[in-house]
Amino acid sequence: MNAYRRTPAILAVAAALALTLAAAGVEKNGGTRRITVDETVTMLGTTVKPGSYTLKWFPEKGAQDVRVQLEQGKMVLASGMGRWVAAEHPAHETALVYRTSGSGTRELAEILFERSPDSIHIEAPATAQTLGS
Known about the structure:
7-stranded antiparallel beta sheet, 3-stranded mixed beta sheet, 47% strand
């Protein structure tokens, strides 16, 4: 009888572990995040004004390269390339990391994913244009 009482607990732990592993693996297959930009920044070579946007990424076939898109509504505002990189430790939260460019503007440098050592490193853009709300 004791084995019967433990079975639901074991199944619950196994299901939670499977969901956690599946969630971690989904990111590399492509994904979407709603983001809010609080100040003017550069993302994928485009100057983005404060507002709500959708950030999407799609893997390139057979490579660690990732196509990243910034959308507002159904309009693609910016598109660029990134690369999957692995850190020594998983990120504590999902976050956008910015770097300061030579001109002093903040530009998207990396996308971190909560509880995952994998992140998307964004290539520095060559040129910039202004878009957004």
